Design the sequence.
């Protein structure tokens, strides 16, 4: 069946309505007090965004909006299907993840990660795939034997004989992350005293990943505007964003491109925000 397209004017913006009922706004300048999809009727949910300039050359964003309650319209359900999740992982050369991993991602993405739309979900999953070797490694592999005992040290919060190398699906590091995550998730210092719980407990491996995304990544400048490099900068900017062309930063972005394709998002995404 052919998809018929109608173009009409909403609040001064030309938008496209298809049978899928998702559409792009016009360019909304950064000077506007209200932007995005929330102010349209019927209620809309932002699926993704992309940078633009309006007719006067003012920088802004275009937003891909979907009616709330539709398959792409947000709410409380999953952001994507299991088959899309599977494709997102396997297209990057890793084994197919189980249904349990799909369920866990969607269980915590909104509640702990505060992830707002499909584009942000793609960014978070891409980073987790890179950090955990395709959702397989819950410990930083180079540290498994040595504990990386001379790294990730901070006398302000380290506990004696305890090592804070990467664990979980986003590889939580440093005592100043384990401590606050433990307080927020468990109400005590369990993870500060025993950080390996993050690797041993599948639930905590996901919960700490989304805790980190919400508290350390998603509110960094550029992340909500779809700048994937800004999320890399928040996660490992000191090593990967100090100069252009970092191999690991580029690898992360390639993974993101494959995730976007699996999720049906347009284009390769925006790599800016890292170096």
Sequence:
């Amino acid at each position: 069946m052919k998809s018929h397209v109608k173009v009409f004017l909403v609040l001064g913006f030309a938008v496209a309505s298809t049978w899928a009922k998702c559409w792009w706004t016009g360019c909304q300048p950064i000077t506007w007090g209200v932007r995005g999809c929330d102010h349209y009727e019927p209620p809309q949910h932002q699926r993704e965004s992309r940078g633009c300039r309006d007719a006067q050359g003012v920088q802004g964003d275009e937003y891909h909006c979907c009616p709330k309650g539709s398959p792409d319209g947000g709410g409380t359900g999953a952001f994507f299907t299991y088959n899309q999740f599977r494709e997102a992982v396997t297209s990057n050369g890793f084994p197919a993840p189980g249904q349990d991993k799909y369920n866990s991602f969607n269980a915590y993405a909104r509640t702990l990660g505060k992830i707002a739309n499909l584009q942000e979900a793609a960014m978070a999953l891409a980073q987790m795939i890179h950090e955990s070797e395709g959702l397989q490694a819950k410990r930083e592999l180079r540290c498994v034997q040595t504990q990386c005992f001379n790294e990730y040290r901070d006398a302000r919060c380290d506990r004696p004989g305890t090592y804070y190398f990467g664990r979980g699906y986003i590889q939580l590091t440093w005592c100043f992350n384990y401590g606050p995550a433990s307080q927020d998730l468990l109400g005590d210092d369990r993870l500060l005293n025993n950080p390996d719980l993050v690797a041993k407990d599948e639930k905590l491996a996901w919960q700490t990943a989304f805790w980190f995304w919400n508290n350390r990544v998603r509110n960094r400048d550029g992340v909500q505007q779809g700048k994937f490099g800004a999320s890399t900068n928040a996660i490992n900017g000191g090593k990967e964003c100090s100069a252009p062309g970092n191999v690991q930063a580029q690898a992360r972005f390639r993974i993101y491109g494959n995730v976007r394709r699996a999720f049906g998002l347009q284009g390769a995404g925006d790599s800016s925000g890292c170096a």
